[in-house]
Amino acid sequence: MGNPLRDRRTAAELASVGQVIEFTDKVSSFEGLAAIVEADLAALDPARTPSDWRESTVSGQLQFGFVDVAGRFPMVSGNATTHVVAVCQRCLEPFRLKLSVELKLLLVDAEQIVDGYEEFEVWELDEPALRPQDIVEELLIMAMPFSAMHDRMAECKALLPAEASDDEGVQDLKRPFAALRSQMTQNKTDSD
Ligand SMILES: [Zn+2]
To answer: Which position has the higher pLDDT, 185 or 144?
Structure first.
């Protein structure tokens, strides 16, 4: 027996057996997701990068079935949750970012048109066989914010009252937000 999350099977096969997949895995098993996190963290000083972020758990559940009685249209529903480490674009500090997705997908072949079932999102399959993990991974990647930021003010250095800046190195990171922020600081100083 392989791992149902990684085995490649057709959507019809998965749906016809009503495959349920409960998974608890590590971020390191999701190579595409890990590569994106790694690229984001590459801008940080390695000493400030949490070393164990790849060990973070990805967990969830998938259930396959057919939306129609005739068994023509496969679907998958479920959820997935993980925590990744992202760099806050306001304060440029790494922080744990929760990614959580609920899925309800109608699995269709390319160019197949299915009417009805509006409660499902249409998920076009490039190939007849799919790896359930690829769907989970793609959804988690899409759930990553374009610009990650601490959502709690108390945790974000940039939102704390200004203290003596002792981390000049951070300011030099080549990031659009950093550039913008230093420009804004500059303008403020000029007008004072
Ligand atoms: Zn922050």
So the answer is: 144
87 CA distance to ligand 1 centroid (A)?
A: 8
The predicted-structure confidence for 110-121, as pLDDT tens digits, reads as follows 888 888 899 999
179 CA distance to ligand 1 centroid (A)?
16
CA of 85 to the centre of ligand 1 (A): 12
Alpha helix ranges (H) inside 5-150: 11-16, 31-41, 132-143
How many whole angstroms separate alpha carbon 58 and alpha carbon 28?
9
- In this prediction, residue 184 has a pLDDT band, given cuts at 50, 70 and 90, of low
164 CA from centroid of ligand 1 (Å): 17
Question: pLDDT at position 110, please?
Answer: 83
Residue in the block written with tokens 């704390």:
160
Letter string b/e over residues 30-66, b meaning 16 or more CB atoms within 10 A of that residue's CB: beebbebbeebbeebeeeeeeeebbebebebebbbbb
